[in-house]
């Protein structure tokens, strides 16, 4: 049996989690959680780690040069770097509204990349 440790980010407590994995890759036991979210986080992190992507994309016609964006849901951790690389090629034009979809279904992950603020036309 192999034990992996994680620091829970499900709530402010920051529990130290331990996940025991059996010889066939199955989760045998989860320890250290203080709430239901902690156990769910440990299982998710152990079997399919995901991250919310926050970054910026280029914007034309605005006072600012970069538009802050984020993924509408967490994407597989192993796809974050590829998503960032794909977003380097993206340019949008002002005006942009908070919540506008900048890239739909980034890398077939099911997550949209959305604007996280309004950016007006800058003249």
How many helix segments?
Answer: 2
Indicate the radius of gyration in whole angstroms.
19 Å
The first-to-last residue Cα distance is 63 Å
What is the spatial order of strands in the main beta sheet?
8-5-6-10-9
Overall helicity: 10-25%
Mean pLDDT: 95
Q: Helix/strand-derived class?
A: alpha+beta
Order of helices and strands: EEEHEEEEHEEE
Largest sheet: 5 strands, mixed
> Looking at the structure, what is the overall shape?
elongated
Strand content: 25-35%
Instruction: Outline the low-pLDDT stretches.
Output: none
Beta strand count: 10
Assembly category: single chain
Notes on the structure:
By secondary structure, the chain is α+β, with helices and mostly antiparallel strands. It is 17% helix and 35% strand. The chain has helices spanning 36-47, 80-88; strands at residues 2-7, 16-21, 27-31, 50-51, 54-60, 66-71, 75-76, 91-93, 101-103, 113-115. The strands form three sheets. It has a five-stranded mixed β-sheet. A hairpin with a 5-residue loop joins strand 5 (54-60) and strand 6. The protein is elongated, with a radius of gyration of 19 Å. It starts with a strand and ends in an 8-residue tail after the last strand.
């Amino acid at each position: 049996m192999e034990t992996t440790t994680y620091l829970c980010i499900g709530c402010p407590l920051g529990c130290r989690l331990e996940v025991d994995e059996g010889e066939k890759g199955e989760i045998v036991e989860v320890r250290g959680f203080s709430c239901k979210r902690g156990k769910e986080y440990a299982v998710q992190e152990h079997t399919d780690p995901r991250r919310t992507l926050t970054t910026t994309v280029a914007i034309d016609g605005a006072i600012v040069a970069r538009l802050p964006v984020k993924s509408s849901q967490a994407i597989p951790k192993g796809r974050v770097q590829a998503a960032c690389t794909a977003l380097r090629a993206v340019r949008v034009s002002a005006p942009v509204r908070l919540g506008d979809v900048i890239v739909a279904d980034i890398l077939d992950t099911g997550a949209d990349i959305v604007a996280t603020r309004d950016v007006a036309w800058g003249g």
